[in-house]
Structures
1.
Amino acid sequence: MLDLALAAFVLGFLALGLRRPFLWVLAYLYIDIVAPQKISYFLLASIPLSLIAFLAAFAGWLLADDKTDSRFTARQGMLLALLIYCGVTTLTADFPVEAADKWAWVWKALVFAIFLPLTLRTRLRIEAAVLFMVLAAGSIVITGAIKTLASGGGYGSLHFFVSDNTGLYEGSIISCVAVAVIPLVLWVARHGTVFPPDKRVRLFGYALVFACLLIPVGTQARTGLLCIGLLGVLSLRSVKNRFLYVGVIAALGLVVVPFLPSTYTERMSTIENHAGDQSASTRLAVWAWTIDYAKDHPLGGGFDSFRSNRLVIQTTDTATAGNTSAVAVNTVEDRGRAFHSSYFEMLGEQGWPGLALWLALQISGLWQMERLRARWGKRALAARGAPGAGPDAQWQAPLATALQQAQFVYLLGSAFVGIAYQPFILMLIGLQCGLWSYLRRIDSPDRAVIRPPLRLTPGAEPLMP
Amino acid sequence: MIDYFAIGLTHLLMALAAWRLVMRDDLDHEIKPDGDPKEPGGA
């Protein structure tokens, strides 16, 4: 039954693309995030859905879409350089077979991130891409949140539709992404035009935000808690009434903490005292190993270069009874541990040039969104008083802010999780490029005429930008 | 059951969104830069 419904949905979606080829781009976003072919047991499982959607999206753009407004931005150039660099290190990788496996999905994610901005030519397309990313991620988040409410979750025990640890279906990754997506949920709920903000939209938006906040509780990934904290601090910049905001957050915290499962609070307390925690100690050991490795391999060892590591980890357990503390030192040997950090993943796999390129890509995104936020924030304030400006100058700065906050959250979360090429985040970067390019274009002084209007409302006068 | 609910709700919304997008002219061409009389910002 579920198989049939999913297949009907995907087919219907692809069929709608015949009328509007941009829908294929959205179909790819959906398929890449939700992976319906993995939820399905037989109908969709045997079809290379992702490939079909990508080819359709690309062909639709190439053959049917207007390309006069498509721009290739500097950050797409960085993505392209990263793609080529990763391709080269894959050829010379320490572990050619494993590296080829990872390359097989990384190149697709990078190519799509380069391609996506070319299609985001109108405001509605940008909104549609955000909306589909939110709803697609929402389908995973909602199920995780309800299961958390029902059972309390547990580290590694919260099951989504798909139990293989790939894509967004892995506990630490979905924790980070669920928190990163919160600003986008709020943006869609406030500035959407596909679902214009009314009571139902706001209710769904807030419920989805709540669900996103529950994911780190359910997966008990410590990264998620840090991400929530960061998002809370970042939001201080954009909220209107800061005192009220801080008060509400503090009150919510007091109400929520007693309801958290004890396994969760116990696990979170290890953030402070990580010496007894093998997972944290392993991370520190892997990171130290990676820095050493980069000295010998400054150009990187290709994907999965961590497989050659051998680690000796010492953990200390302190048991206190009365006035005496017994310290037990355990030595654990480990090998082939993953990087557990995107920064070290980049350094170990792509070397210093790869890390520099990746950091440049991330930092330029934060900077571009900051510029858009400043420029359009001023304009939004001015437009509020200007007759006829309407809500159309109001959505840009909040979207830039949301994309920046999402990226900040990701950059913190990725310090503890190896998600340097996470497709969802690369889509987010694609969105940033699209927004940057779109707003620069409509802002440029030579743009006197928008597009030759196809079906302009009678009597509506073209406005000069 | 929970899976069905989550998949059902989000897919219904995506289907509705896709349908609404197909119906809108401003998906492929910006009609004008400011103020869209067809799409009010609020309900």
2.
Amino acid sequence: MILERRDWLLWAISSVVWRMPGRGSIKMAGFSHTEAGSGLDMLAATEETTRRDMRAKYFRHALDELKHARLFKKRALALAPQEMSRAQAMLEDSNFIREHGINASESLFSRLGELEFLAFVWIAEQRGAQQFDVYTDLMKDDPDSCAMFAEIAGDERFHIAYSRAELDRYTEAGQAKEVKEAVGRVKRRRFLEAWLRFSVVLGDFMSKLWLGILYILVLGPSSIFARLTEKQPKGFVMPVIPDGDILERAQFQG
Amino acid sequence: MSDKQKPNSMSIRMGTIGQIFKMLGRTRRWWMAPMLVILVLLGLALSGLQAVQYVAPFIYAVF
Amino acid sequence: MSITVLGISAQYHDSAAALVRDGVVIAAASEERFSRLKHDASIPVRATRWCLEHAGITMDDVDHVVFYEKPLKKFERLMVNQLLHFPKSFKAFQRSSMIWLTDKLWVRNNLVKQLGVHPDKLLWSEHHLSHAASVFYGSPHSEAAILTVDGVGEWASTGLWRGDADGITPLLEVTFPHSIGLVYSAFTAFLGFRVNNGEYKVMGMAAYGDPVFKDDVLKVLWPCEDGSFEVDTQYLCYHYSATDSYTKAFEKLFGVPRFPGTDFDPTTPEGKRYADIAASIQSVAEDCLVALATRIHKETGLDHLCMAGGVALNSVANTAILKRSPFKTLSVHPAAGDAGGAVGAALWVWNDVLDQARSAPLTTPGLGRAWSHAEVSELLEDLKVAHTDLGEDVCSAAADDIASGKVIGWFQGGFEWGPRALGHRSILANPRDPDMQDRVNEKVKFRERFRPFAPSVQAGAEERYFEIPDGSDQPVRWMLMVVPVREDQKAAMPAITHIDGTARIHVVEEEANPRYHRLLGELGEKTGHPIVLNTSFNLKGEPIVSSPTSALATFMRCGIDVLYIDSFRIDKANMRGLDRVADTSAMADL
């Protein structure tokens, strides 16, 4: 079978990544959060859509994603080594979703609107299915993981199908141009998002580097002053009420 | 938005920086001023880099 | 002219928004309920948006927006501490500075941008002051002593105040790194639980042990003669470490830490040791709190004590304070943690800054968003969920289900303010069923075995089952106090009776929650006992449900038998189409 060029790249990267010891468990922990986050996206879609006929579909999709989150979590813990594993820590981290996914105060649905949201679902589910095909192949020595990916793949076929059917419905209703544009926007945005993700990682690295340098060069000498001048009181202290009337004090951030 | 003229983002930041130094004056921690000047400048530079509000949906990370 | 104040807490744990109009809290909600991310600490855009919608106003109509603490003071404390502990604070500096310098320091910008508020409208309260205001102005007392105890605010970890007609006056404080909250959290981490999440599990574990390690704990934290307390920082590193809270010296004293997620069995020597350590820190914390309360009684001479701050969620300690201090009554703010600061800051602005007439006390927990009958009906139809509209008979039907041993989801009115479920978003079951603790655990919660559930009892009937201490009227109405179960009732209600014969009770007044009160009445008529097992309506790791959609999603993923949303009854047995989950045994490994 001839894979698309992109799949070869995915296969190549993944075969290195997934063969690293313990990596499978960590990846699955991350996927668990991804699924949970998608589940939240779908629940938000259920609540916000004005199309009453879509609510049941989004809701079913949400339950599937939340089920997948549970499956990945279970598998991640099963694959993790005995001691306090990084996978376990990742799963416990309730900030993970906010740091790795949505960083906005609006749901994906309200940001994209119904049509583009469906386009997004269709493309993202296909991409996910592609990735899972590769991972199933790489983990063929692990029947439990393969079974899990197979179950998830089954659900995803439904997700791909219903989102495609809806897009087709919009096309038949005379909105072919809008559908094409929405799909195009989603596809292009994936590159921008990949760049954004990369730049966040790079930015984090640069920040850490600079802060490290400053810590030694700037905080070092300042710490001498601190040790000389700071009193760390024990027990009770009298609170200091600064000058000024109460409204003035309330306008001050410090 | 408000009908009052809203100050822009930079002037709000300047206001905050002014309050930082006002606070140092009150708590008599002037020795921290040089350090904070450098850190705040770094902070402004780093915020500038991350100026694009990172908004992206969930993916299965490849790496 | 109406005056509206919006209070905001954000950036640390549990962000929230609260709207106070003419001194009355008309809406209050934690952001996590909207975003569905537990302990969401980001700027509460959704909660704010809902509060304004609920009040029928826009941000321009709000007179003042107040943030619950002084961010620059907090930043100063962080920097000073990192300097004092150079070079050990390297990692902490890298981590915290990155977040502070790019985000938290510019909270004024963030609030302006994300909430759409004019910068000149912004006011800034203080962390402990917000806690103090939340409880004092939420209470019916015209004057009271106020004690605020938590991990740390800007500089203070503990505040002693006087509240009266002149406002809230600070009397004394204890500053970082001396902190009961942070030491308790260090023990929480040592005992294998998550910090800022598992503290009440330590409280639960303590009942299984004896304070045989008290002398060792007193080397770490001890009460002083004058009512204050001190901490020996050689055992702790929360003041300079990015990730840890206790040092090797601490481990030398208390032994090997408990591995997170392992089973806790108090019958084994290792389990008993952990329980003993939990009991020891609980005992020392209580001693410190009682000493603080005694001191503040001496300073003020008042009869009423109000408490807030994360440590006030320690309901066992609250009982000790009421019993052992000279105070006649105790009040605790229901959202005693950081979320409560949103309400507190707004009430402080109304009462103290604007010097208006004293605000009305908090009477009902259901300050969050509600959904109308029509909205729920439409959703159930669209999702093709089989349901029956019972109208006025909903309480009777629910009582029947509970009496027959079913586990029900109960979704009524606006969701609760604070971390406790108080009959708006609850899971209910029969507390007199001997197997109920296991059944609820198996079907829904999958909670650690050593943690009992809590009961709700109809007001007027509580003395039948529990020994209610004098002066505890307020905390028992908000599930913030642990009381002894009557001797003759202990055996009859194992699901809600802890190993030491106590329960964390919730007394339901009609005024606070009329429908829940009626449900208990119906249950009382059918079974003779107007008391129910009440646990929060959520799965492990998720925030309490907020909307009908989130309630249904939770219902579908666990073993609750029947769900009541408004007057609608949804029976799992009748559901078709969507997969039905009968229990959470699949979650056993999680």
